């Protein structure tokens, strides 16, 4: 007897949401509060709208003047709530509309919402979105609802790629240019420094220079012409002296050879 | 597993190859017509959205269900809302109260109020039944205005008074009867519900008088019409929110106009001009305006109007004066200022403003410009009294070319091509070669070689006359190309082919029976527009096919009733046309190859094809849809004719209904037959041009199956089923190369675990390979080894089973619904492809790179170096519709029905065109613009760098020379 009673009770409680689902509908209100990524929700474009979707049902609501979305006549179910906005991205919500369990609200529907993660298990709920009281916005669009589920703004949307613009600094930062500048500096400054040295130092420096690989760069060619590129006289080439080409290596080597004497 | 990935981290994980639009390309590579649809007569008006502000906006609810506000001075859209979420066919109501900061709309089952300056929603209410009328109560007991909404339910007429700013129902009046509710109207004291009472063809008018405060029925007045009102459309006019609202109708022969002042029994009759074909009544909508109204009668060729006054005390209607009979169309409109009522007449030659009081003309402006020479259908006007005898008027006129034209004091201020909305079919067309040159070349080809040679030399000598002007143009062109102002230098009024193939035509057909030619190379400029009015039988025009013949430069459009029209693609000139009903109804049209060349084969209802002459017998198998099945049809000769022989029939199993069929585009080149893996082995693609994808859904069990069919043998090559698919939401597929994709809304438990379930919009994508092992061609390989002739209907020798491709499939979750799938096309198919789709909730068109939705992405582990080299990343269930994927970027594009792509001559570039409600077109480079210098290539910088280097060399040269000489002389 006892068993059958509890079974009947279970049956009743199972039927209840079914009955409710057949009859009752409720209103679901989402709201966009001001938040760090979105200090002024009143600036959102009027094309902003929200949808509640589940199998066989879709509800859509436009953005109201009070920054809310009001869905009317929502039947019980578990809905995916999305806010579609051209300027900002919003976190999706899971909105459950179920028959209220509280005895005083028997037969009424209650609404609960959590953040949800796309591409994850539907039961993997995030933080619950607690209903917030709608501020006393007089003449608000919401005639019946007094509380709304807040929607979190993720970030402003970025549609465009930045085009790298031309700037002198970006050229100067280029390592090739830096190298060229340094060698240019040496090219100009070294002779002056050498001139200012006292004769002994100068002699010593020149002796050093003969063994220095930099000599090939500065003097136009070095004595070790191991590879053909080593022979290449950059400065002479830039100077555009055409006969240099014919003389090639010998001419380049000559000054260095002379320098030895 | 349950990693709460935020959307941003997924965005970061995406490959860097995603190419978004650059800000400076906006308006150069893309174009967008932000449209509303053709404004409807009753739902268009000027309205001041802010009480303190003098400026007014132009509000309209268009024939496609778009509610929008347009700035009357610039023609730009201030805001717009697609009321029902998709395109609707006419109807809808829109009203605004004088000085109210909101407008109210009613459409379908919902009544809504919108903030007039911003377009935000104030309130939305949904009721049972359908909205039949909407009216504003200007004077209420409190300080706000209220809304009266009239609904028709099954067997009941319901009128409601709704609080104007808060949106709750104040009272509801319900009359349970079978009357047809017509309109609701109000004067200061009472609310009138006008409905048709009786049975079809003999209605009488019933006016129910309601109390404004409680909605209680006060009185009911029946007005006999003696069978003159046979259907709701016969009642010409009801209401006007003036002090004396009226109802008017005519007798069947249109000889007399009958007018009744609402709330009274007597009706008055007025004679109409002979041969009247239609009448229209214009009256002010404001309660303080004088109770005057205007009756416009149109005959076949001319039109006139009579102005009537209603005496508020006696309720007598008297004729005051008339506007003379004028040839052609003209549009009348009403505007009010305080109690004054002005009537504006826009004729083909001039704009006339008169007061409602007397026939004296207050202002007359001759029309300048030829833009409005097409007939004005209806208009709204705003008359401003500048001084005692000086008036200014601006009228927004809807013309019979579906344009919306603003005429300001006789001058055309702007034109909005609203006719481009409601497009039902579009195609790309090449700009035809200049006809003379083509003819000359043809002549040369057919004459004897010597003559041809002489002719050609002559032609070239003649061409020399263009040389000086060409030489003259060089410096200008050089300068403009350096400064990057090429676009502006071009002459954009002529149609010319360009070497990059970016200049192409798009020919568009709308459901209103209009055709447009757009120049895709010049921001979608309208090259020509015409009405195919002689061809479509019914509106909306049910277009079954549009086909461009680029060789002849002709466009063929075929309608459902067998009608067709052939026009020239560059001018829109009609070449040939056939009215409806002369040919059998058409279900679809197929381009087929025959001995006599390619032609358009019309397919009748249920896939029936009549006999065709032998020379025109299609060589291919023609796939037709017959109800819920697909049929493959071949043709066999029988005497002089070829008769259809069914080759195969495919019908989806069980209770499945075919919801979408995706076919390959005609241009689908394949650059590589295989896919090179990381270890340099090759996975051969299954490349069968004769395949199509069918998506079928069983609504009972909500299981969707998509089949890949071989169209030659009718064999199902692969199929996959998805459970928990919503049949009410968009299901769309696309097929290209060796893959196909389908989008749908799914909600189901994941197969390998009972506890996990998913819900959301999804995209499934399948790759087809000849074998799932690399360097292997499967059974095909053996067949190809023996003899290269493989046929799907004549399977390979010693079959080990039918040649079934190896399918790799993945399903991704999307962050929103997508529909109208399409694939980018390039000339040779070397460029990687992108899946194009209309993100209907984001109001954007998205281009998802193939790489992101690659079915070979590895699941559950990180990719190995070899897989990384192949370009595979780890599978994540979510594919976020990144804003940078959006080829429409910040533009708000709504109501896209289809996206079509075409290749340019540049391999990197694909031309995209989307139509439906808005028109959007762009150029896409899915693999970056590798064969063209874009805007990022700064010619000034390049030249500057070269000059700087030259200067450096010039400066350094002497120094180096001096140094070298010095070195030789001094060092020794």
Structural class by SSE content of chain A: alpha+beta
The average pLDDT score of chain B comes to 85
Biggest sheet overview of chain B: 5 strands, mixed
Q: What is the alpha-carbon Rg of chain B in Å? A: 34 Å
- Counting copies of identical and different chains, the oligomeric state is heterodimer
Shape of chain A: rod-shaped
Q: Report the count of strand segments of chain A.
A: 13
Shape of chain B, please? globular
Q: What fraction strand of chain B?
A: 35-45%
The helix/strand class of chain B is mainly beta
Order of secondary-structure elements of chain A: HEEEEEEEEEEEEEHHHHHHH
Structure summary, number of beta strands of chain B: 65
Name the biggest interface. Answer: A-B, 65 and 83 residues
Helix content of chain A: 25-40%
What does the largest sheet of chain A look like? 6 strands, antiparallel
The total of helices of chain B stands at: 8
State which percent range the strand residues of chain A make up.
25-35%
Radius of gyration of chain A: 40 Å
In whole angstroms, the N-to-C terminal distance of chain A is 125 Å
Written overview of the protein:
Chain A: This is ER membrane protein complex subunit 7. Chain A: InterPro entries: Beta_sandwich_EMC7, EMC7. Chain A: It is found in: Membrane. Chain A: Pfam families: EMC7_beta-sandw. The complex is a heterodimer of chains A (261) and B (972). Chain A is α+β, with helices and mostly antiparallel strands and 261 residues long. Chain A has eight helices and 13 strands. Chain A is 37% helix and 26% strand. In chain A, the strands form three sheets. Chain A has a six-stranded antiparallel sheet with strand order 3-2-5-7-8-9. In chain A, strands 4-1-11-10 form a four-stranded mixed sheet, with no helix packed on it. In chain A, strands 6-12 form a two-stranded antiparallel sheet. The longest helix of chain A is centred in the N-terminal third of the chain and has 22 residues. The termini of chain A are far apart. Chain B has eight helices and 65 strands. In chain B, the strands form 17 sheets. Chain B has a five-stranded mixed sheet with strand order 55-56-57-58-62, with no helix packed on it. In chain B, helix 2 runs antiparallel to helix 3. Chain B is globular. The N terminus of chain B is likely disordered. The chains are: A alpha+beta (261), B mainly beta (972). At the A-B interface, strand 2, strand 3, strand 4, strand 5 and strand 13 of A face strand 1, strand 6, strand 10, strand 57 and helix 8 of B. Strand 13 of chain A pairs parallel with strand 1 of chain B, so a sheet runs across the interface.
